[in-house]
Amino acid sequence: MTKSPRPTLKMIAELCGISRGTVDRVLNGRGRVKPEIARRVEEIAKALNYQPNTVAKSLATQRRDIKICAILHVQGNLFYDDVIKGMEKAAGEIKDFGISIAIKRGANFSVEAQLRNIDEAVSEGFKAIILIPMSDERIVSRINALAAEGIPVVYLTNFLDRTDYLCYVGCDYFKSGKMAAELFRLLAGDRARIGMISPPLTMQSIKLRFLGLKAAIETEYMGMTLVEVVEIPSDEDLAYSLTLDMLRKHPDIDCLFYATGGLVGGFRAVKDLGLYRKLKIVSVDLAKPIMEAINDGGILATICQEPEDQGYRAVRIAFERLVAHSSPKEKNFLIDPSIKIRQSF
After folding, report:
1. Domain boundaries defined on the chain
2. Cβ–Cβ < 8 Å for 306, 171
3. DSSP symbols for 55-102
4. φ and ψ of 114, to 5 deg
5. Minimal CA–CA distance to 258: which of 237, 238, 285, 277?
6. I need a labelling partner for 109 at 20 to 30 A (CA). Which of 72, 136, 186, 286 fits?
7. 105 closest CA partner among 70, 135, 77
8. How confident is the model over 114-152, as pLDDT tens digits?
9. For the chain, how big is the Rg over CA atoms in Å?
């Protein structure tokens, strides 16, 4: 049975043939409305079993100067472009409430830049911060100080232990690593020899992906070998040179887990070595270069971390905390990864 959509002010307005603002005035007792129109609104609202949105109701009594800041420390990574799309979608939904979202960017993997961005956000009056935290004791201390100041922090894609944060939104990275191992078993058999290209493992979420892959190989697929793990920040030239070096050093690698930015540079190295469509390559997410490589047969499968959903959820959680003083049901909001192949599209 299909569940009926939740009744909204817009639905009531359309049924009454009036504006949503008029419906809002009737149901919240604001302003004067003709009695016959008010009766019609109330009758339809009752018939639909309309329940007022508690978030919207709480906003009516607040000053509309609430600002949320998202701080990203990664540049040139297509994954975060999709995260921002999700944030922008959420921002569009809440803009009518007078809530603003700003995105601050720092230098790649720079703790100092992240600390500066946090301090700027506080001085500029942002009421909540969405953060991809760097794994550093100075960031740990600063996050706990923010909590003491009453500024909630939502972690996105990465998290820090020993910190007082509101919620962590991210993929189940450990599971995604295990899924990669299973894909390589299916693609290359029980003797697969795997090279992994990864962002720096200092980030807890990225480390969990590596540990998931490693655990699956050590406990389930013991004939497989993780030959080398190369850590690359989002830099196309560096991705090219380090991918080239790894594949030259280990010509027996037959599988490549490309789990970071720099895909264009990395694939250029694969092609220069004549290994395009020969290596069994698994990637992460669905950025445009990945989609092109999947359609072309260069990438056989990709593990999607749902970056748009991550960005969207993080903004909504921060928004609801500020305007409705609500806490998320789960401290760690893990989104299940999914596998996509060419036939998925």
Report:
1. 9-52, 67-170+308-335, 173-304
2. yes
3. HHHHHTTS-S--EEEEEE---S-HHHHHHHHHHHHHHHHHGGGT-EEE
4. -65, -40
5. 285
6. 286
7. 70
8. 999 999 999 999 999 999 998 899 999 999 999 999 999
9. 24
Q: Is 33 exposed, middle or buried (0-12, 13-18, 19+ CB in 10 A)?
A: middle
Cα Dmax for the chain? 82
Note the pTM of the prediction, 2 decimals: 0.73
Main-chain dihedrals φ then ψ at residue 303, nearest 5 degrees: -100, 115
For the chain, the distance separating the N- and C-terminal CA atoms, rounded to the nearest angstrom, is 28
Q: Average pLDDT for residues 10-36, to the nearest whole number?
A: 81
121 near 104, Cβ under 8 Å?
Answer: yes
Going from the C-alpha of 126 to that of each of 112, 209, 323, the distances in angstroms are 20, 32, 14
CATH number for the region 67-170+308-335 comes to 3.40.50.2300
Class of domain 173-304: alpha beta
Residue recorded with tokens 């893990």: 334
Residue 155: Cβ-neighbour burial (10 angstroms; 0-12, 13-18, 19+): buried
What is the enclosing helix (H) or strand (E) of 231?
strand 225-231
Mean pLDDT of 48-69: 66
Instruction: At 318, give phi and psi (nearest 5°).
Output: -65, -45
